[in-house]
């Protein structure tokens, strides 16, 4: 139907390796970019600030973690600490007088160095042992933020971020911050999509499938594991800085705790390991579903004139939200991206009979 490949002729390797081979997908991608650019005139300011901006920044962070977990197959339970390092570094660099772009890049670089150091055990261990190593990063960073006032200001301190500027233009409006977040996420998505098509991406996938076999065919396992941690931490650090400057406008130790690391892993798994569109789906579902469920319950209770106690209303959305996650993973363990891919594959050959099993 929409996704049919009629008229698509792979006459060159470049055409075969294009990001969007099917014409409908190219048109859909252009439409989504146009809608994203026009969002400030389509949705309310509250929706733009509370939903779209954090969703886009979290998507960029999930893309970085997905590069490590989905493509390289390395588990990471300290991604919140990586984002915290990037956020605090960017804030201090910006306070020293550096431009916004330089501060965000510096945050990503410092996060990449520290994340790579704690990723060194991946050269020797795998699985749960690697998970404990990355969890140690989270514990150490949390302790440092609480115990070293020179970095965070103290356990209860809040550091206000300087007003960001890009090429001398102050990002003072909600629309400007949203567009900045959208451009940042688009650049990260394009980078990850292109990495997947290169020899580096194929080497990372080989590591994910079986690192011993990858070593046998000549892949430098140590180098590519270290590279995966470095690039993933770099994206995570920049995403943490973007959250601080474009959404929170302040940083506190509580913003990047262990729960944030677990939430990031949940976004990757629910969205789909190794999927770019799954990173968008996963971030949106984990971030926005609890809020929408709570609003839906409030409206339903008001429509039915049913009284729900505040304690029940605080916990019932989490129960429904957890049940939805469990249901999604039971129905499709490969995540929300696989559900989209199932529909896409069906429409590619519809209405022919051999699509029915």
Structural notes for this entry:
The protein has 357 residues and is mainly α. It folds into 2 domains: 1-38, no CATH class; 43-355, ABC transporter involved in vitamin B12 uptake, BtuC. It contains 15 helices and 4 strands. The strands form 2 sheets. Strands 1-4 form a two-stranded antiparallel sheet. Strands 2-3 form a two-stranded antiparallel ribbon.
Briefly summarize what is shown.
The protein has 2 domains: 1-38, no CATH class; 43-355, Orthogonal Bundle (ABC transporter involved in vitamin B12 uptake, BtuC). 73% of the residues lie in helices and 2% in strands.
Please give the share of residues in helix: over 70%
Question: In the CATH hierarchy, what is the class of the largest domain?
Answer: Mainly Alpha
Number of helices: 15
Distance between the termini: 18 Å
Strand count, sense and barrel status of the largest sheet are:
2 strands, antiparallel
Tell me the strand order in the biggest sheet.
Answer: 1-4
Give the integer mean of the pLDDT values. 85
Instruction: Say what the CATH topology of the largest domain is.
Output: ABC transporter involved in vitamin B12 uptake, BtuC
Approximately how much beta-strand content do the residues carry?
Answer: under 5%
